[in-house]
Design goal:
The chain contains seven helices and four strands. It is an alpha+beta fold. Bound molecules: inosine-5'-diphosphate (IDP).
């Protein structure tokens, strides 16, 4: 299997729960490594650009407002099959539907405030990583 890199965000609600360590431990326990990380507060413009594909959705304003409401942790995760593996560790978008033991089942509050983001494809991962990291900020771990 190929070594991949994918993009992950620990969202403001999970940051408020002091859950960075627990969430990173879940990534590491499943074979993913942290190749880059930064903690920041997203600007409205950056959050809108990041979620541009959802611009027409009714929840877009609420989503941008939530994502800019407090600090987030931005990460590059690296490992075998990292894109799909991260999606499995995260669980379904709606925490109520997420499998037990997944990040969203443990730390998600509702379908919007669902604790983490993870790229849904290799192409999305490349676009999203480039939005938040310079090439030299991502290590080959
Ligand atoms: P994903 O994050 O599991 O890939 P997407 O459908 O791409 O799910 O949605 C992006 C983000 O938009 C979700 O993670 C969630 O924060 C938010 N979102 C999705 N559906 C809803 C909704 O019905 N109400 C409010 N927020 C939503």
């Amino acid at each position: 299997m190929a070594i991949e890199q994918t993009f992950s965000i620990i969202k403001p609600n999970a940051m408020k729960k002091n859950a960075i360590g627990d969430i990173i431990s879940m990534f590491e326990a499943n074979g993913l490594k942290i190749a880059a990380a930064k903690i920041t507060i997203l600007s409205k413009a950056k959050a809108e650009e990041f979620y541009a594909e959802h611009k027409e959705r009714p929840f877009f304003g609420e989503l941008v407002s939530f994502m800019t409401s407090g600090p987030v942790a931005l990460m590059c995760l690296q490992g075998e099959n990292a894109v799909l593996k991260n999606r499995e560790i995260m669980g379904a978008t709606d925490p109520k539907k997420a499998n037990a033991g997944t990040v969203r089942a443990k730390f998600g509050d509702n379908v919007g405030e669902n604790a983490v983001h993870g790229s849904d494809s290799a192409a999305s991962a490349a676009r999203e990583l480039a939005l938040f990291f310079e090439k030299h900020e991502i290590c080959n771990v």
